[in-house]
Amino acid sequence: MKTHKKREQFELCNDEALTRSVGEWEGWLKKLRYEGRAWFEGNLSSVRARFMDFQDKLRSHFQVEESIIFPFFRRHIPRTDAPVDLFSSEHREIMVLMRTVMEIIRTVELSPALLCPGQETVRLSEMGVYLTSYVRHHLAVENAILKKAWGELRSCEKEALRNLVEAKVAKGKAGGVSWKR
Ligand SMILES: [Fe+2]
User: Fold this and answer.
1) What is the 3 CA–ligand 1 centroid distance (Å)?
2) Of 22-36, 64-78, 165-179, where does mean pLDDT reach its minimum?
3) CA 48–ligand 1 middle distance (angstroms)
4) How far is the CA of 32 from the centre of ligand 1 (A)?
């Protein structure tokens, strides 16, 4: 019984695909920084590929939350207004960080031979660690706050919210967002 309750709460706002993508990208960042020159260009290519995947998953996360989950909680649990405002501002901050990281990746790609293992690679690694930490913290706090609010919804409201999210995912506008029942 306890396991079932935990599972339902965990699935409310957790995006497993995003969490997995963050971890994979972080792994390639470490390889880029610490493996030798012989692997540098291959690792850089993987860093970009995993970053694009991370960015896609993040956009799906933002889209479902901002178009469905946040408005739903504002309407049904008004006291979530303040945390939802904070989460929305964190989404904007994360997008700024994503753009900064993308610019550093482009810079390293322009002159990989000169920049291995150069200053920009170290900067990319440090900004990447900051970004992944920020995203993980965002997901943890969001999940903790919204799963509590989820517990205050009536059964029919939970069902309505599930249906709205599932419809959004089914339309293909938010691929990668998991919503298990
Ligand atoms: Fe979020």
Assistant:
1) 25
2) 165-179
3) 23
4) 28
CATH 1.20.120.520 for the 16-170 domain, yes or no: yes
pLDDT tens by residue, 125-135 = 999 999 999 99
Closest CA to 80 of 96, 92, 69, 91: 69
Question: Which amino acid type is present at position 133?
Answer: S
Domains of the chain by residue range:
16-170
Whether the CB-CB separation of 162 and 179 falls below 8 Å is answered with yes
Q: Minimal CA–CA distance to 131: which of 107, 105, 162, 159?
A: 105
Q: What is the distance in A from the centroid of ligand 1 to the CA of 31?
A: 28
Q: What is the pLDDT of residues 69-97, one digit of tens each?
A: 999 999 999 999 999 999 999 999 999 99
Cα–ligand 1 centroid distance for 20 (angstroms): 15
